[in-house]
Amino acid sequence: MQNPTNNILIVDNETSIRQSITKVLERSGYSVFQAESGRSARKIITEHPISVIISDLSMPVMDGMELLKSIKNQYPLIEFIMITGHGTIERAVEAIKSGAYDFISKPFKRADIIRIVEKALVKFNLATENRYLKQQLAEIETEKHNFIGNSQHAVEIKALIQRIANTPSNILVSGESGTGKEVIARLIHTNSNRNDKPFVAVNCGAISDNLIESELFGHLKGSFTGAIRDKDGLFISAKDGTLFLDEISTIPINLQVKLLRALEEHEVMPVGATKTYPVAARIIAATNQNLQKEVAEGRFREDLFFRLNVIEVNIPPLRQRAEDIQLLVTYFINRINKSLNKNVQGFSANALHLLHSHSWPGNVRELENVVERAMIFCDDELIHSKHLPPMFSTQENNGPTSLKEAVAHFEMKHINSILSMTQGDKKEAAKMLDLGVSSLYRKISELGIEK
């Protein structure tokens, strides 16, 4: 399998011309495919990733101009260089107007071929990178990948992201399902110097054991039943961007050796290949399992764990940062209002109290789903307890019963919220609460608030 940025296709019905250009390019380190007609050229393109086509203008059946229009219609990023003979300059100019990168006139020199191919590849690579950048900018503009929260936990995680984003080190993101591990991975990527490069995410647990090797490392055509063309693995697709491996603990033990080698040697060997290919992506892995326990029980390699766990970002469950719930709710309401075409302004005090009292086993993902469901059933500006899923009505009946308990519960939530806003600054929090600092410390002790 070839690196897609180095694959050149030569199309010419004259064997001597094809072989002459192939020899020049192969000596310069390029991988070259040959086709004797437009039809065979199209077949090769469906089986191999091609970056640049060099085609003769005058060919029987499908000439170079027809091939150019066909390729640009289906594969607009592939750069096309036309070979012209005497008396065909006008058609060469027409080819450029139709999307060809440049043309080479016969007889051509070795230096001319190399120069034009190098420039065409630069343009191809820029176009490919720009496509990734546009996709990622669109995602950022929709605020899809923010880590929302002002709690001490959230502040510490954001500070850690800023510190580690520009390092090349492998990162392990751990936390329960629904805590936002991919959000953290994307934030690390967008805050790094790789943010204009691809971010490629894969859920290892969603891929069957017999396919995951091909997905990660790629395969050659014919290497197994169903491999009808060469395929780049995700390590190669990520280029020098970021590869996010979610649910890393699900990777089969026999494949962990190959993954370890990819991390240590920065190279991969596709299925069916006999040589390795360099890779440069930064690796971020994620797990909702205790990997140290997996290692102890023989399900995960210890050396791979150490290689992945250079830096760990642990995301606490939502129940441990309940003071972020109101901010998260506001964020979800603003976003979901647009998609549902509603004007919901918030939750009633009682409904918000129920959210704070819930244990959130599904974490932020569960909270988002609850907010969306409540907004669907709400025709007012405020969401009330009646709009929440049935399980919350049970919680409502099991809440604080006495006035003293209810007041204490409210005080605890309110003080936690203010401490979050001041990032733990007790003096500033006391001012906002209109309390003396000593009174605040007494309240913190009485209510059992984490200091």
Task: Describe the protein's architecture and organization.
The structure is a single chain. This protein has 451 residues and is an alpha/beta fold. The chain has 3 domains: 4-131, Response regulator (Rossmann fold), CATH 3.40.50; 142-316, Rossmann fold (3-Layer(aba) Sandwich); 319-447, Helicase, Ruva Protein, domain 3. Helices cover 49% and strands 14% of the residues. It has a 5-stranded parallel beta sheet, sandwiched between helices. α10 packs across α12 (302-308). The longest helix is centred in the first third of the chain and has 32 residues, at 110-141. The two termini are 57 Å apart.
How would you summarize this macromolecular structure in one to three sentences?
The chain is of the alpha/beta class and 451 residues long. The protein has helices at 15-27, 38-47, 64-74, 89-97, 110-141, 152-164, 181-190, 209-217, 234-237, 253-265, 291-296, 302-308, 325-340, 349-357, 363-377, 391-397, 403-421, 426-433, 437-447; strands at 7-11, 31-35, 52-56, 79-84, 102-105, 171-174, 199-203, 218-219, 231-232, 242-246, 267-268, 277-278, 282-287, 311-314, 346-347, 382-383. β1, α1 (15-27) and β2 form a beta-alpha-beta unit.
